[in-house]
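Researcher: Let's do a round of design. I'm pasting the structure tokens now; please hold your answer until I've finished.
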């Protein structure tokens, strides 16, 4: 696995810092936390994004579950911002795989584009 195909270690460390900080801040009941989005719904997708190969069924089911819970604009924006932060600084191949996840999983109603330049 080449270093260019991985989400950088610095990006992962930065994301973990953001997730931990977000967990400590009180939030509105309806808004999702990054720990829920990245550590829950999106967790099964991380290895696929890093190394490719077969897409785990758990990744697609996590994305479908995410679609089901992001009903409000606030929830969609929160989920989008979390995934956007996760992918900042990622290699082009990782970004390509991430952007294709909804269509690869057959999810036509995914509420936002997965990528670091998403307009959340």
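Researcher: That's everything. Go ahead.
Model: Designed sequence:
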């Amino acid at each position: 696995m080449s270093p260019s195909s991985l989400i950088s270690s610095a990006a992962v460390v930065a994301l973990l810092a953001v997730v931990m900080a977000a967990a400590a801040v009180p939030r509105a009941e309806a808004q999702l936390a990054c720990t829920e989005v990245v550590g829950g719904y999106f967790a099964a997708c991380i290895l696929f994004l890093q190394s490719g190969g077969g897409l785990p069924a758990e990744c697609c089911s996590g994305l479908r579950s995410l679609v089901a819970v992001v009903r409000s604009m606030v929830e969609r924006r929160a989920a989008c911002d979390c995934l956007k932060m996760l992918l900042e600084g990622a290699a082009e191949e990782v970004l390509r795989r991430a952007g294709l996840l909804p269509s690869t999983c057959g999810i036509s109603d995914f509420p936002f584009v997965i990528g670091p330049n998403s307009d959340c």
